[in-house]
């Protein structure tokens, strides 16, 4: 379906297109010709650095709604009390690696780019970003007049230093896994005081995600920051300034009156650290907490459908991977892997484990939430007859195996359900449910039940792009390759996918990858579940990301 | 003299116990998988980053060197540096110990009079309804796990009635009364558990003392009942109860993890648990040794009290 506009609108659009790169104009063309929808256009356009104003105009021209208008403002001056899991260590922008640590960091800091709740990138400290033709060099324009909490002005030097620290292997950086093969310290360069250039190790069409909220270590701090001493001052550019921080107890923040985006509504933020979800839920019900960073369906049943709480729900790609060793044991035969995958009633899992707050998976990392996911690839559904036929074809009537996983949220229940599904076609599954530490072990082959088990379930957090999911667990050189999957065609397709800059090419390669993984089935992706947070009934204006960040600039109660 | 020598000997033995304990903890940390860098950066971190972080923390040295280093610093009064928080361990241990002691104090202020009172009343009414009620209550309450009673208490008093604050952490700068108000709810689950032990001990001790010869003699001498009870019965009946209370105080200090987690209280049990998970060597050692030292100390105090209250033991020491 084409959405070609009338003559006046066409003229407006022509003006918008002037001085735009081919890639950007290509995105606009895809929208006009109806090849992508509004959501995909926003996500894709934002990745290429199209401004919100331009995208809204383009959408308006073809009769679609632009970005949502700013939220209605609530009363200023509130103290917002947030409950979260206790950070596992010091609040250090380089080493923070846990759900607990990222929020104390984010409350004070800004990123170059924000990966919003809808996976649409929004400008934060960078106002524009553009790739070169092949996606190997990305140039970021910085916002002018941004001040750190100590009054100094932020410049390209601070951005270069902040990101370099993360990409340097000598620093013990948590972001190193993400930057591996993408960006090295040498590739980060200041062009002028308000321009930074990133020369990548390989073409990457999704690079802005790597310096967005998606990479929660990537907050911009002054160039001379000592990360190990950051907790004591927390100087950054965010809407709130550190007032106090007590390890294991909590933190308080006050409004930054000089914030570049204008002062936030709340005058104060209180973070309260808890070791468990249950007391957080009770705290919210008891009126002593306003926001819970993350809740899960298993632990927050008293909050669901309860007028004393509001659940904030975001579509995400957080998921579980059920790996099967492809080179040894019973699953070395791909027919048995496929048979196992065919026994699973995915909708039942979504309804039973998540009360419907999840999407069905199709045995590839391409979650429905990614704009490049090829939706024409058929969905794998339960088919016991076909599964039995595959077992017979493989020449086996029964298979004995052990499913290893850990004591975490719904994982033991999922393991039991898989055992029951497998039993229907003669796959006899013993369960081995371990402590989280024992499951991951040393995270290297030979010393890790995660990487060594023949059949196992692992948890994976949300990401803005599927790149990490495609690489680490599935590339033949992947460091988290628990299925021992090795397929040269796949490896090449992933390199092409990561390099692709325009959405059309990405979707085309995604389709090939999805079909290849359905055929090979090294890993079952049963579902992608939604990211849930909770607030008190009167709290409004809280914006969360599926990474665990909470933006409270517009919060009131 | 005899009493002092006994105390001195017990203290020396206590120090030896603590030293052995430090070796056990050290060996324990060697058995557990993982390392501090991995614990901080998580299972998915890049191996180069983990190695770099361990290097920065000094956690990649040979384990024996880490232990000897820690022991050397310890003997000079330095508890060391936490891997996890990158700060000196001492303030963490100090604050957590003070918090735990406050909670233990509130627990015992509530449970000791309640337990002893109920036990003595039951003994004085042995076989009657009051006795049966106390006996059944003391047996059944002891077996309620803290996590069950905690949740029920929170739901009733904090969520529905909203009489008491939900967490044990009080706002900074709060006065004693506000602090006590925050501690009542977390103290109750332990009061429920400990009540049974103390009441049963007090009851059986009192019954034994009531039937003893010296009590009969005192009654036959024509002493008023109150005097008989205070001087002859309770003084003898409560000696074993003191020992029970002391060992329970040690348990309460180290075993409050469930209550501390649910009520968001930064006590020493919680601190040790986190240190063990994070392979935070100095913190773990200092925490375990603090709990051990407290246990040894309260047992010593209880033993001394028992000796001082028991004329026969006192006489034995003088000989």
Automatic annotation (TrEMBL), chain A:
Signal peptide: none
Organism of origin: Acuticoccus sediminis
Domain of life: Bacteria
Pfam families according to UniProt: SBP_bac_5
Family assignment from sequence similarity: Belongs to the bacterial solute-binding protein 5 family.
Localization (cell): Periplasm
GO BP terms: peptide transport
Molecular function as annotated in GO: peptide transmembrane transporter activity
Presence of the UniProt keyword Transport in the record: yes
GO cellular component terms, A-Z: ATP-binding cassette (ABC) transporter complex; outer membrane-bounded periplasmic space
Protein name, UniProt field: Peptide ABC transporter substrate-binding protein
CDD domains registered for this protein in UniProt: PBP2_NikA_DppA_OppA_like_17
